[in-house]
Amino acid sequence: MISAAKVPIILSFNLSDPSGGIGAQADIETCSYLGSHCCPVITAIATQDSQQIKNVVPLPTDTIGTSAYAVLEDMPVAAFKIGNLVSTDNIFAVANILLDYPHIPVILDPMLRGFMDTPFAFSHHYLAALRETLFPLVTVLVGHHQELLQLTHGDTLSACVQEVLEEGTEHVLVVRAQECANRLHNALYSHRQGLVKEYEWDRIPGHFRGAGSTLSASIASFIAQGLDVLSAIREGQAYTRLTLKNGLRLGMGLPVNRRWTHSQDFK
Questions:
Q1: Does residue 81 form part of some domain?
Q2: Backbone angles phi, psi at 67, to 5 degrees
């Protein structure tokens, strides 16, 4: 029997996606492959396929709370991963739990992009609750530049990042801070240092479902394993790129990045 001390535990707050592309299913696969154990607390039930979101039903606050505390009172959770919380009640429920465990690092992926231009796009009230309630508790926020523009009042990416950091978030990883035909540029900022590091990658053609979920879950997994934030973000990006290179088109919509790839070469 493997000692529990050797298997870091991630508690994930996320929706359930029946197509397996994003949400809790992505967190489970990513953490499992990277050697962590994911405990998923479901925040909402989504009806969606590989093409589009058809419906989302948030779960009650009490259900989220009792599910999370059942795990936290039983297992030594090493990191929180937060994905889509769907409603303001979801936000407040999760924030109350995090406040009880301030020593556990928090990785937040707001997951707003998939809901843009749909009937389920988030209200200003929801976005304000996210900023004011969760941002002060976050260790690493992983966000696409379009999400940051939606989340904040800034009219430039720099102003958006600064606003998130001023709310109390320790680090912000901006995905696709710059974009061109063949290269992608990500950027890491911190509350103390400002711009910490820029990352440049060859662009992998196409669009995928689950890339953001995989990136944030892998960062959470590496932090839970004891890596510092800078190393965890580097390794998380490398792993995510590997899964994109091995992506599969399983349905009639977007391909899913292959998180269960057998390759061990993340570099």
A1: yes
A2: -65, -45
Instruction: Let me know if residue 251 belongs to a domain.
Output: no
Domain count, the chain: 1
d(CA 225, CA 167): 27
Q: Cα–Cα–Cα angle for 233, 73, 11, nearest 5°?
A: 25
Closest to 208 (Cα-Cα) out of 262, 249, 259: 249
Sheet holding 140-144, edge to edge: 53-58, 37-48, 9-16, 77-82, 106-108, 140-144, 171-179, 183-190, 194-202
Residue 263 belongs to some domain of the structure: no
Which residues partner with 249 through β-bridges? none
User: Is residue 258 predicted with pLDDT exceeding 90?
Assistant: no
pLDDT reading at 245 higher than 90: no
Which burial class, exposed, middle or buried, applies to 166 when counting CB atoms under 10 A from its CB (0-12, 13-18, 19+)?
A: exposed
CA within 13 Å, CB half, 244: 21
Q: What average pLDDT does this structure show over 171-194?
A: 84
- Higher pLDDT among residues 191 and 82, named by residue: 82
Q: Is residue 250 part of a domain?
A: no
pLDDT, tens digit, 9 for 90 and up, residues 51-69: 667 778 889 999 999 999 9
Give the Cα separation of 181 and 88 in Å (integer): 37
Domain range spanning residue 26? 8-245
Say which range, 81-90, 111-120, 122-131, 146-155, has the weakest mean pLDDT. Answer: 111-120
CATH number, residue 94: 3.40.1190.20
